[in-house]
Amino acid sequence: MGASARIGADMNINDTERQSPSVAQNRGVTGCSGAPERASEETLAALAALADGMLPDLPAWTAEDYAHAITGSGADKLADSGVAPLVAAARGYKLLDASNVAAELKLMNFKPQSGQGKRMRRSLTAEGQDGMQMPWYSVADIQNAARNQVTPEPFTYQVRPSHPEDNERGKPIKYEFAGGIGTPLDLHPGTPTDWIDGTPVVMFAEGMLKGDAALSAYLRTHGASWDDLRWDGEGDPRQKLAALYENIALPDRVLIVSIAGIYNDKQNPIDWREIVLKDREGWIAFDADLTENLFVHRAAVGLYKYLEEKAKMKTVRVLNPTVTSGDGGSIAKMGVDDFLAKVGSWKRLVSYLSVTFPPAPATDEAEKPGNWRVTKDGFRTEECIPVNAGPNGEQTGVRWEERVDLGGRILAFESVRQPTDQELRTGSFSEEVANSDVVESRVNVEITWWEDGRNRTGIVSGPEKILNYAPADWDRHGGHIPRSLLTHRAWPPKGANGDKWLSAIKAHRRSEVGHTTRWMQMGWVPVEGGNPVFLIGDTVVGDNDLGQNATPGVDENVLDRAPHFGVGDNTYADWTDESYREEVARDFRKVVDTYIFSEAWTEPATAALVLAAGLRPAVPLRPRATCYIYGPKGGGKSWTAQAMMYFWARNRSDWQDQLPGSAKDTFAFLEKVVSLTPIWVVDDLAPSTSKRQAESETAKLEDLTRAIFNNASKGRMNFDMTSMKSNKPISQLVITAENELTTASVKERLIPTYIGKGMLNPSREPTDAINDAARNEGLQARFTVHVITYLRDRAVRKGGWPGLIKWLEDNRSMIKEATRDIMKERGITSANLERSSILAADVSLTFAVLKDMALNLGLEKKYLSLFMNGEGLGAEIIARVSEAYVDNQTAAPGKALVQALSSVLGAGHAHVLSAEDPASPPLGEADGYSNSINFKLGWAVADEKGFLRPKGPTIGSVVSYKGLRIILFTKEAFKVAQLHSPELIPYGHTQQAAWPGVWEEGLTPPSLPRPKSRGSFINTYAHGTGKGRPKGLPVPVDTVVDGVIQE
User: Fold this and answer.
1) Overall pTM > 0.70
2) Are residues 872 and 913 in the same domain?
3) Of the candidates 174, 482, 628, 959, which lies 20 to 30 Å from 353 by C-alpha distance?
4) 491 lies in which domain range?
5) What is the tens place of the pLDDT at every residue in 511-534?
6) Is the omega angle on the peptide bond into residue 391 within 30 degrees of 0, that is, cis?
C-alpha cells in the first residue's frame, strides 16, 4: 500500500507489531477529549519504573560527568537528555559565556550588529547566564572530508541560551541558528562513513539532542558499558566512539541522522544525494506532539511520503512512544530524548515503531448554530441548525441542513513579484515582502458541484481582493468565472447566503491552501527551503527533485522574445558524479578552444570580452558594465553579439539569425526588458537622415547605459500621485552601433569594442565553429548550465548562499583594486579611475568563477592560466578598459570645450580680438604669426587688398602673459560653442562644469596660477590693472589653434 493511501483510509488503525500495553490502552481514543497529554515534569520520575514491570537500564549522568567537554547549563541539559559524555565530547558541544562569546559569535557567523547578534550577546553575557554551542555537521561535508582525508568542519551552529529571550509573540527562543546559512541533514561526526550507505536502517530524529540521545542509548544497548560512554578528557573522543561503532554487527546497525526542525529537512539538498536510501528501512522520530500538533503531523507525513515514494525506502516506520503516568491512567506523549533518559531503553523505544502513520490531530470544528460548512463530499454547503429537544426547549444537539448546491475551497494564492535585494543576497525566500514589491496577488478558487451524475469543477481566478466581496460581485472586481459555473442555477449565492457560503469556502480544507510565487524576472530567485534556482525562459535550473520549485513568470504574454531564452533541454547536474564532471571538463575545454584559442576574433581582448559578458549573467551579482560594440556595417558587430547570446539559447536554432532587441525599440520597452532578462542586446544603432530620430535613439541608449551602471530607473507616478514601482535593471546589456557614443559621462560607463575590417579571423572556420557548436550540439547553453549548477554546488559546499555572495564580492573588490594598480603602472595617474576599475572588475568576475571551476575540475595549466588574477584574459579586459579610459579623457569637459572653441573660431562662427588694438587682427607678424593663424581665430579677408575683418560675435581677447600669447574667453564663448558643437558639448552640460575642467585638465598656461577670490578658486583671470582690464578663461593661443590636445 502506498503512503498516501495508508495515511488516508487506514489512519486510525494501529499496527500491532511489537506493541506495548500502553499503546493498546490508547487504541480507539479519538477526538479532543481523548487527546494524549504531554508528560509533566512532576510525573517523569515516576515513569521510570513502568517499563513492563522491570527497572529499565537508564543513564544517570550528572553535569559533572561532562566537565572535560562542557560545563554550565549545557552540561545540565545534556545530562537531562541522556546524551552520553563521550558522544557529547566527540560532537564538540561548547560552553558560551562572557569570556568567549565575541569570538564564538564571529566563528558561528552571527552578525554582531544584527538584532540576532545583539540578542545573543545579551543572553549569553548577563550575570549568571550562559549558553551551549551545538555544532551541526552535514552528511555531504563528512563524506567529502573522508574523501579528502581531512577533519570535517561544522556546517552551521545552533545556540541554546540558559535564559532565552522572547520573540515578538512572547514565546522564548530556546534554540537559535545563525541566520542566512540554512541547516544540514546532520550526522554525528564520530560516525564511520561506511555506515552512511551501509546500515540496514536509517533513523531520522528531529533535533540534535534527540539524535545524540538516541545514539547514546543505541550504543549502550549494543555492547557499550556506562564506563565506555564516559570521557575523562584523555585521547580523541571520536576515535573512542568509532571503536564502539565497530563492535556492532552489520544486521544491528542503525544510522542516526538529525534534522533541525519539522520544515528544515531539505535545506541542504546535497546531503540527501550523499545517502543511498533505496531498499533500506527508515524510522521517523519526530517531536512528542506528533499527534497533537497539526503542523508537526503534516511535516512528518511529508517526510514519510518522500522516503517511501521518492527515496524508495523498503519500509518506513514511525516512532511515537506513549506511556501511562499512573495518575488515573492518563496517557503521556514523550520525545525520544525524554523517553530514553527517564523511561526506557533503546529496545523499549523501538518497540513503539509502527508502519501505520498515527492519525492527524482532531480539528476544532465549531458546531455552532448558524455556522456554514462544505459537506464531506465537497459538492454542497450546509448550515448548522440547533436541535432543541430538552424538556423546556433546551438545545440538546445540532444537525446540518443543506443550503447551496455548490461547494469548493480556496485552491491557491499566487504572488507575482520580483525577488528583493535581501532575498538575492541571503538566498532565503521571504514570505513577508512589502506591498510595493508585489506586482500582483491572485487567487484561484475551486468550485465543485454534482451534475448529471458526475463531479464538476470550475476554477474562479482573479485578484485576491475578490475574497473581500460577495460572489455576485466577483466579476466586477476582476474575477474570471468559467462558463460552466455561470450557467449553474445556484450561481452566484446572493445576499446573506452569499456571505455565509463564502465563509464556508474559505474555511474548507484551509490547511491545504497553496501559496506559490510567480517570478517576474529571469535569473536567480529564492525558493522555500533551499538554495536559489535560476529561471531562464520556461526553464528552471536547480534541485527540483527535492521539493524546490519556482514558477517562471516571464513568458510570451509578458515578453514575446521570452520563448527564445533558455539553456537547452538538459539541466541535469550532479557535481559528485565523476561522469558528469568529465562531461563538464570536456565542454569547458571546447568552449575555451572555440572562443579563445581559435582566434575567431583577432584581438584577444575582444574574445575575452565576448566570453566574459556572455556568461556574466550566471553570476548572482547584478551586472554594471555595458558592452558597446561599434564599427562599419557588415563588419561582424551583430554576429559578435550573437556569440554572446548563444549561451542563453532555449533551442539550438535560437539567436542564429536574430537578436533580442533593436535600437528602434522605445525607451519604456527597453527599460522594462532589462529588468526582466539576464542579458539583452540592443542591435543596430545606425546613423539616420532624421536629426531628431538620431538624437532620440542615441539619448535613449545613453540613458539605458547609465541605468545599468547606476542600478537605477526613471521614477514615475501613479494617477493618485503615489510612486510607481521602478523597474531596476538586471541585464548584461550589449549594444551594437556603427559609431561611437560621444557623451563623456556615458562612455565612462561602458566597455567599447571596435569590430571592423580585420577584427574577425580571415578564415571562416573559427567563426563557423562557434555557430556550429550552438546549432548542432547546444554547447554554449549546456556550458551555462554547468556554470549555474557549479555556483549552486559551491554554495552548498562552502558557507551557504551568503558565503557565495561574499566570495564573489570579495573577488570583485580584489579585481577592482588590481585594475587600479595596473592602470597606474601604465602611467594613468588620474585620481578618477573608479568607474573604469568598476567596469573591468564587473565583467572579469566571470573569470573568477571559471578559474574556480577549472581548479575544481583539475583542468590543465593551458586553461587554468587564462583565468589567473592579473594575467591572461583578465589582463586583456583591463587593457581594453585602460585604452578606453585614455581615449575618453579627450572627451573630458575641459578638453571638449577647447575643441569646440577651436572649431567655432576656425569655422568663422565667432572671433577673438586683440586686447591692445580691438580693430586689428589679434596676432601679427611681430608676434611671429602669419595671417593663417588669424583665420583660425575667426578672421577672414575683407577685400582684394587683403585686409582682415572679424566674423561672428566676439567671444574673447588675446593678451600677452610672460611672453605667451593667451586668449581670455568670455562667458559668451561657452554658449556659442554649445550652439555650434552639440556633439562635443551636449545640451545639459553647463559652463560651471566645463570651465573648471579647463583648469583641472591642465589646459591653461602652465605658469599662470589659478586665481582665488575670498579663499575659493575662480575660473577667470583679469589681465593688467584698471577698471576696464580684460578678463576671462585663459587658454594659450597655440592650444586653441591646434584644436587637438596632445597627450
Assistant:
1) no
2) no
3) 174
4) 405-499+514-555
5) 899 888 889 999 999 987 778 999
6) no
